[in-house]
Structure formats: structure tokens, C-alpha cells
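With this grant's support, we have settled on a layout for protein records. An illustrative entry appears below exactly as we store it:
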Amino acid sequence: MSFLVILLILYIIWDVNYFIRCLFTVVAGRLFQSKRKVTDKTSIYGLCTSQDVDIFIRHMNNARYLRELDFARFHFYALTGLYEEVRNRRGGAVQGASSVRYRRTIPIFHPYKIQTKLIWWDEKAIYLEQSFVTLSDGFVRAVALSKQCITNCDVTELMKTFPEAVTQPEMPADLKLWLDSIELSSQKLRKDK
């Protein structure tokens, strides 16, 4: 009996569902989907359930979007081999910044997909654009920009290992504005020290 209590406590403290979903997303992607180029768009699918909704039980909670974006990023890393190449260089990846623009809600019990695409990189980070699209109407419900800081390796050199990414794309205008905003915020925080 005490074993079950300990197991229950660990389940509550460690959010086991998150880790199970991460593992499932990566393993299912590797087993059932073909490898993708680092410049390709990847997609995962989801369903807005009662665990995802806000207090009014009508649509996906804003915090849940960020959690779902994690799974889509892990899937992208697994299918493209990008994270494997980072790990080969003894590097890692951490979320540096993210911004989500919510256009319309995802109603409860509606299926959706998250599309992830690498849109740019610099020497320290890669930048992803991720979109939530409802399957019933193809409408983009939310768009996220994500800065993934790559630690312990030069990203421009890393990207040269992928033949499709030898040439860096032009920085999208919205990404530039977002990065300028982040820099302004950083300057303000440095002044506050």
C-alpha cells in the first residue's frame, strides 16, 4: 500500500504525463515518420481535451499552448537529426525566448496540428516558427516564434553539416522586430542592475 502512495506522490510531483508524452512523441516520430531535412516543416497532431481547457471549459488554456509547443519542438529535433548533431558536439538546447500570437481559440474536443519550421539561425541560436492549425477549417489559431539557444557550439558551423542549410536564409521581418524588442528589454534589464 505504501508503495502505491509513494508512486502517486511521485506521479503528482513529477508530472509524469509530460515525460510520457515527450517520449511517445519522439519515439512515434522516429518509428512511423520519415527523416526530414532541417529546412522542412514538421507536424504533430493533438486534440483539445478537458485537461487542456481554461476555467470555463470552452477552449485551450493559454499555458497549454506553450506545453504543446515543447512536444512539437522535440518532434522537430528528432525527425531532422538536429539535436543529435548538437549532442555529438557536446552541446545542448534551451529555450531562450518565445512569443505567441493568439488569433482564435481552439475549442474543446477539436483536433489540431502544430507545424514547426526552422526560419533562421545565428551563431548562438536557432529560430523556429510554430503554428497551431485546426483540422476542421485549416485556420491558423496561434503562431509562435521561438529562440532556441544552442549551448557549447557555433550554430553557423553546426548548420553547415546539413547540406540543405549551407546557405542561411534571409531573416524574416517579423523575427527581426521581435529580436529588436528582446534586445531593448535586455538593455533595460542591464540598466536596472
